[in-house]
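User: Predict the full complex structure for these chains.
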Amino acid sequence: MNAEELLTFAARRISGRYEVDEFGYDAELNDKVLLELLRPLYRHWFRVETIGLHNLPPEGALVVANHSGTLPVDALMLQVALHDEAGRAVRLLGADLVHRLPVLGHLSRKTGHTLACKEDADRLLRKGELVGVFPEGFKGIGKPWSQRYKLQRFGRGGFVASAIRAGVPIVPCSIVGAEEIYPKIGDLRLPARLLGLPYLPITPLFPWFGPLGLVPLPSKWLIEFGEPIRSDEVDPAEADDPMVVFELTDQVRETIQRSLNALRLRRGPAFFL
Amino acid sequence: MSPVTRTVLVTGISRHIGARLASVLAADPAISRVIGVDTVPPTSLTRDGGAQLNPLGRVEFVRVDLRSPDIAQVIAAADIDTVVHMSLMSGPAGSRPAMKEHNVIGTMQLLAACQRSETVRRVVVRSTTAVYGSSPTDPAVFTEDSEPVEVPHTGYGKDAAEVEGYVRGYARRRPDVVTTTLRFANFIGPKVDSPLTRYFRAPLLPTVLGFDPRLQFVHEDDGVEVLRRAALDDHPGVFNVAGDGVLLLSQCLRRAGRFWVPVPAPAFRFLGEGARAVGRMDFTPDQLALMSHGRVVDSGKLADEFGWVPKFTTASAFDDFLRTRSAR
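Assistant: Here is the predicted structure of the two-chain assembly.
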């Protein structure tokens, strides 16, 4: 932004004359401020490379990705990748823990994300948005170091049912690199329970180095978008048939696991490259 | 096409929207009589009457305490065919028990009278989107069939939910009568006096620290218009009514050019109690929830059924409110 643009931007923000969608997504704030803060991390710290962007359909789709890293940095990097390299605003479906928290919950809405619930997923997909989910949830992001790159259970497959109802393709997405940012070698169970958190990790740097332990390790990242898996061959009326849903869920899960294995080999060591 | 409406009863005529609706209906030559009832005489009508509003003239005012069975006599005596029930109170007119009694018992008495009546063919009830409550674990956008995660257990929202329950019961018992329930987002406009408009008129505004709720408004003109349409034609069902789009509280405050102070939620409640004590504002727990988590509804069903959408968006309704606020 040059000085003039910056001035009109500031004036618009101060006067409140900007658009926010019904989910609370503030596209301008997201692009100009929030993503701007993440871009150095994306480009220089993790040196993220994307593969298979052409697999993203131009219209609505459901991006299904693996979840890892103790803190949801992978969600943020996926958002930067899709915004900057594919020109798409991804609408992630987040845990209700995030939405209960002050500040974070509202920042999450401003960056385009919403609660992982059937109504919101259906509504976004009906509007032709690119929706992103991490079906492993806390089981994925909070798994111990020894389980790295092993996909966890995919919940009840609610995301598949949403895709079937909307008739949109499912884009499998594999993220390699997030596993190494905060290697979780232990879990402080009691304090976590007292704080109402799903886990409180022990990493090589946390809690020993205090806030410094929050600095993620500079692993090398690859994000791959696989070939879309069609969901419109299933009759929308079968979206609540568990057999159909589980079958498609397994197909998506296996595709991501396979691509994770290949991508890990391709990347080589996480550090010092 | 339904038969022509002849005699309309409007409850809650002493407050702004009710008075405006009664005047609009009275100006319609297709309607032979408009009877307005309320617990207090419509002072607002005489004050606001004149240039913009029709003179009270054709609106016949009957002073009835809705909580008493007197309303049955009014309905029986006048061969009323359409009832527009507007007298749901959102703000405190005295104590909370009195408000609850007015809202809930008043509706029960009115519906009991309608149930006995042979002439009533259409009942329109003003409700509120507050029936959905407000919590961080609800869907982002409520539709009419949404089941809220946390049903409102205090104040206006709870009253409205109970009122709607009685309306559903009435509709079941009298399937021959067309019932329309309109769930309005917060009213806003030049003459609206509500806890929210009082809030936006304050010189220094507290906000809840760490929260920036999504809000929706419906302009008073649109509110009157949709009530008029519901009173004149058959539109059975429950409908959300809100101006298109949303405004974040932070956007509202910036547009209003007011200063605000983020305070932690408990302090916000404490301030609210203080403001309430001096009669400045009403910050009940459901207001605190709204100021924290916000609430957005989908008005698509209204557009489909009525073939009409509110003229003002949420943003333009708020701007219209601001324009007149600064002129005060």
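Chain A has one domain: 20-181+216-266.
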